[in-house]
Design goal:
Layout lengths: L3 H27 L1 E6 L7 H15 L4 E6 L4 H9 L5 E5 H9 L12 E17 L14 E3 L6 H12 L9 E3 L3 H9 L5 E6 L4 H9 L2 E4 L4 H8 L5 E5 L10 E13 L4 H13 L1 H5 L23 H9 L4
Parallel strand pairs: 1-2, 1-3, 5-6, 5-7
Antiparallel strand pairs: 3-10, 4-7, 4-8, 4-10, 9-10
Bound molecules: glutamic acid (GLU).
């Protein structure tokens, strides 16, 4: 008996501790972390990351803990998703195609594991300047300080495509800056840059903030050379925007892409399925979270995707009868 007693206590203690551990463990141990990469804090990608995570945390909280974080933009997000550093990333449709096919930033090195999940809002390639710079057209940028986008952003590639189409050599005709967009918007107001190029959903705080603090213009990017450039690329469209979208800004015409959400082929199928299902089943809620999301439409969200669909996304779309 004497020998049994301590043993019983020990067994009992283990059982109690085990019971506590078992009671506390399931909720925590079964939750899977999801990390989604967006863009600059004043852009719309960060809102995609934040708001879709918010839906996951509200509607799929028993299984997932989702975190949306700012990131450097499209090129960074493709590479981070490919390396497994992000579960999902937001990426311009032109970068989605270039990564898949091994072009531009991925020259000769296609990202074979890149998979599309769905597309989100349209994004316009915006050339934003202050009215006091006297810049009235893309050609007028010669001799000026222009933010062409930070390395890792989607707009940097758009800048390097479009400026030469207007006869502008980025290395010798302008002083090119590579600020992140939150800094670039501030630098425009502070007269540290004369203009910036930013590919973003409309509206966006990144444009509203300078528009509300100084007099800005958004210029046309619609020359014949641009129209010719986009004509054989299905991920670009010309788009006209009405006057008054931003304070003091007249109507303008430019070309546009779509924001797409991507994952790696290695991402867990059930996790991707649950994310897609949660987003589509709560689309009305998502649409209310940002003005750029008001245009979201189920059928449109399956368009503009170059990389093949992720298996988890495909499963959901087949269930809905969309494929
Ligand atoms: N289109 C930008 C990029 O690819 C990001 C825009 C945003 O953050 O909304 O880097």
């Amino acid at each position: 008996m004497n020998r049994m007693f301590p043993t019983k206590i020990a067994v009992g203690a283990i059982a109690v501790l085990g019971g506590i551990a078992l009671a506390a463990a399931p909720a925590h141990a079964q939750k899977r972390d999801i990390l989604i990469g967006g863009g600059s804090v004043t852009g719309v990608y960060y809102q995609v990351a934040l708001q879709t995570c918010d839906l996951m945390n509200k509607h799929a909280n028993e299984n997932y803990n989702c975190v949306g974080r700012p990131a450097l933009g499209s090129v960074f997000n493709v590479n981070a998703v490919n390396r497994g550093l992000l579960d999902f990333g937001v990426v311009q449709s032109d970068r989605n195609w270039q990564a898949l096919t091994g072009n531009a930033d991925w020259d000769g090195k296609p990202v074979e594991k890149l998979r599309s999940v769905f597309s989100m809002h349209p994004e316009a390639v915006l050339l934003v300047t202050r009215k006091d710079t006297g810049i009235k057209s893309v050609e007028d940028l010669k001799g000026k300080t222009v933010n062409i986008g930070n390395p890792g952003s989607g707009q940097r590639g758009n800048s390097t495509d479009l400026l030469p189409l207007y006869g502008i050599d980025i290395d010798s005709d302008i002083k090119a800056e590579g600020l992140q967009q939150n800094e670039a918007s501030r630098a425009l107001v502070d007269k540290k840059v004369d203009a910036f190029i930013y590919t973003v959903g409309v509206p966006s705080a990144a444009i509203e903030e300078p528009a509300n603090s100084t007099d800005i213009d958004i210029l046309d990017i619609n020359s014949d050379a641009i129209k010719d450039f986009i004509s054989d690329k299905p991920y670009y469209v010309m788009a006209k925007y009405p006057a008054g979208l931003f304070k003091g800004v007249d109507e303008f015409e430019t070309y546009a892409v779509k924001a797409t959400v991507v994952a790696s082929a290695d991402a867990d199928e059930q996790m991707v399925y649950d994310y897609v299902k949660t987003v589509f089943e709560n689309l009305d809620e998502l649409k209310k979270t940002h003005a750029a999301f008001q245009v979201l439409d189920e059928a449109e969200m399956l368009k503009g995707l170059s990389a093949p669909l992720h298996a988890g996304a495909e499963r959901y779309y087949k269930e809905r009868g969309w494929l």
